[in-house]
Amino acid sequence: MGKISALRGTRDILPEEVSYWQEVETVAKEILTKAAYTEIRAPIFEQTALFERGIGEATDVVSKEMYTFRDRGDRSCTLRPEGTAGVVRAFIEHGLHNQGIQRLWYAGPMFRYERPQAGRQRQFHQIGLELIGSPSPVADVETIALATDILETLGLKHLSLQLNSVGNTEDRQRYRNALVEYLTPYKDKLDADSQDRLTRNPLRILDSKDEQTQAILQAAPRLIDHLGDESRKHFEQVQTQLTDLGIDYTLNSNLVRGLDYYTHTAFEIQSADLGAQATVCGGGRYDGLIAELGGNETPAMGWAIGMERLILLLKELKAVPDPELDFYVVSRGDRAPAKALTIAQTLRHQGWRVELDLSGSQLKKQFKRADRNGAIACLILGDTEVEEGTINLKWMATQEQTVINQQELLANNEELRQQILQAKNRN
Ligand code: ATP
Ligand code: MG
To answer: If you take atom 24 of ligand 1, which residue's CA is the nearest one?
Structure first.
């Protein structure tokens, strides 16, 4: 039988890469926790109807990219292509609107049937947040500020915040009419997707990457000129507060989320270092979504960071951190390996990082591995030491070696703790 490999568009995150993922998760969790956001974990698959209604049937995600299947009970199920719909379903299902404003974050895999390329996969990962229950522009700015905090704390450079307002439902209806009226005479010159969108979802045409379509759009009416007073005021407040926080932004009137329940603020954070897949974080306000999914009218704002793209950037920025290990336990003999495990376990319970060599190979080879794995000190155990209740302690930096009593080692003595800490600081 032939070899079985990972499916196209999916990839393994091997141990050498995983430290980047953990760093992102740690930083994000710390920053979000400080702002009183708590984690929510929704299922990875849901009823297909949730995404059809929650993302919209006219979108690429729903019309072309979903992993949809029938289960054995003949229900239509879909692997989640994004996180918001599931969080909102959970919010409604558990009556969370009775518990005041909800600040939620999530992380995990998402699934879209797309053409795989750098920064674009079929199983990819997002960290996202939703701030549900506040219509205030302060809410928009808080969430954007947290996204920039996370990216900047990770050390990313050359980022730009692209900002737009898509107004409220009436503004959008007015704008949609103006846009369709402007584009209709050019219909035959638009790319095929845009021709299709002209009736289904005209705002999405602004997103087109086609050069000729973009040229036609140059002179198109702009959404920003069609905002009513309420929307303009909201947008101005968002901009003022971003400026107050020292967060730079660029207005981009072509940035749209083309659905009826997206409202007001839309934003993307792009990196100049990512090539075609430049957007690391995308989000916006969605005041109409919760009612659309059967809840009470509830304003909300959210974003999602694409982990793969973020990690591509991080890898450019810094090397994989060296492994950290306090003790590497080397043993050889009949009884020594078992005793070595007992000692390793005791030291681990005291808080030390301890790796046990299981190879049974020559001591020299075991020392080499200790060095490679970043150990501060080796503990060496043979059958004689087991017999005598002693152990050899060898400092890797100086190669200095002393024989100590096992009891003394395991008594977790302060002198040894200080010596280890000193050796660590020297490294
Ligand atoms: P794009 O225009 O790149 O297709 P999108 O508008 O479909 O992005 P969102 O649905 O807003 O993306 O998702 C938020 C973020 O998730 C994106 O900015 C990106 O970083 C990431 N992302 C989206 N789709 C993928 C994918 N197929 N592979 C990897 N990351 C993705
Ligand atoms: Mg996409």
So the answer is: 120
Q: Residue 59: which pLDDT band, with cuts at 50, 70 and 90? A: confident
Q: Which atom of ligand 1 is nearest to the CA of 207?
A: 2
Rounded to an integer, the average pLDDT of 55-77 is 94
**For residue 393, what are the β-bridge partners?**
379, 402
Has domain 15-168+228-317 been given CATH number 3.30.930.10? yes
Residue 387 has φ and ψ, to the nearest 5°, of: -55, -45
**Into which CATH architecture does domain 325-426 fall?**
3-Layer(aba) Sandwich (3.40)
Task: Report the residue among 115, 262, 265, 277 best suited for mutation to probe ligand 1: largest number of ligand atoms under 8 A from its CB.
Answer: 277
Total residues found in the chain within this entry: 427
Domain ranges of the chain: 15-168+228-317, 325-426
Q: 284 CB contacts (<8 Å, ≥6 apart)?
A: 166, 257, 262, 264, 265, 266, 267, 301, 302, 303
Q: What is the pTM of this model?
A: 0.91
- Tell me: the pLDDT tens digits for 151-204? 999 999 999 999 999 999 899 999 999 999 999 999 999 999 899 989 888 988
309 C-beta closer than 6 A to ligand 1: yes
